[in-house]
Amino acid sequence: MNLCEKCNQPNTGLDFWCQSCYAKCFQQDFKNWASGNSDMFYELLKNNGRVDLQIKEIVVWDYLIQWGIEQSQKISVKSRSEWHNNNYEVLKETLRLFIPLIRFSAINMTDFIERVCPYKTIIPNNIYVETLKFI
Predict the structure, then answer these.
(1) For residues 95-107, b (16+ Cβ closer than 10 Å) or e, as one string?
(2) Model pTM?
């Protein structure tokens, strides 16, 4: 069995590092991992890889929102306080495949209210209503 290049613990088969070191690196650099490639980001969410990598769901949500804004050239106003309905519609369309993959029930109530609720209009109603049952 190979040893992790970072901590010399047994390598679990994830590149050259053990799962713990891989998760730590991934968390510290999540923005770069998530921002470069929509297919990779989608697969990470779809395959529930963030559980193995110990990433909190609210962190995934925050980066998803940031990524969605960066992907859309139609959202020229970066401050959400200055947004109009059209900005939310553009973001909703940009993230339509990703939002169903977010595990909203894994987000605590405070984070949900403060960081998810401001974007309620981009979340499909059935998902939003279902989430409210769990928080």
Answers:
(1) beebbebbebebb
(2) 0.75
